[in-house]
Amino acid sequence: IQFLFPKNNTENYTLSIIDIMGQEVFSQTISSQNTSITQDIAISYLANGIYHAVLCANNGRFLSHIFVKR
């Protein structure tokens, strides 16, 4: 999975991936340092299913769905 973080101030983001049972299976803090960032996340270890990607920042939260099927 690839996430693109826009150019911003020096805000820190927390990216979490949560399974359908509510368990956090991945978490990473990302610092923008006033530049655009592309962040690649390997998900090959995730079992088939539905996951939620949650991006938290100072100004709010963004939620996206991830569907894994092999």
SSE inventory with pairings:
Blueprint: E1 2-5, E2 12-19, E3 24-31, E4 37-40, E5 49-57, E6 60-68
Antiparallel strand pairs: 1-4, 2-3, 2-5, 5-6
The ordered H/E elements are: EEEEEE
Distance between the termini: 15 Å
Tally of extended strands?
Answer: 6
Portion in beta strands: over 45%
Helix content: under 10%
Q: Give the spatial strand order of the biggest sheet.
A: 3-2-5-6
Number of helices: 0
Q: How would you characterize the largest beta sheet?
A: 4 strands, antiparallel
What shape does the CA trace take? elongated
Question: Could you name the ranges where pLDDT drops below 50 across 5 or more consecutive residues?
Answer: none
**What Rg, in angstroms, do the CA atoms define?**
13 Å
Quick description:
The protein is 0% helix and 60% strand. It contains no helices and six strands.
Describe the structure.
This protein is mainly beta and 70 residues long. 0% of the residues lie in helices and 60% in strands. The chain is built from no helices and 6 strands. The chain has strands at 2-5, 12-19, 24-31, 37-40, 49-57, 60-68. Strands 3-2-5-6 form a 4-stranded antiparallel β-sheet, with no helix packed on it. Strand 5 (49-57) and strand 6 form a beta hairpin. It is elongated, with a radius of gyration of 13 Å. The two termini are 15 Å apart.
